[in-house]
Amino acid sequence: MTFLKQVFEKLAPAMKRAERKSAHGFVALHGAGSDTRQHEVKDISSTGLYLLTKERWLPGEVVSLTLQMTSSLVETSERRIKLQAKVVRWGDDGVGLSFVLPDDPDALPWKSLLQTAAEQSEPNGVLDLARLAKAFAFLSRICPDAAEDVMDLIHGGLTKTRMANAAEIMLRAETLLPRDTDDTRLFARPRTVTKILEDGSWAEEDWIQHMWGGLLATSCSKEKPDDSNKSFVDLFSKLAAVHVRIFRYACLRATNIISIAGPLSPAPVICMREEIMEVAGSRELLCIERDIQHLRELGVLEATSASATHSDHYEVNITPSNLGVHLYARCKGLQDGI
Question: Where is the PilZ domain (predicted)?
Answer without folding.
Answer: 19-106
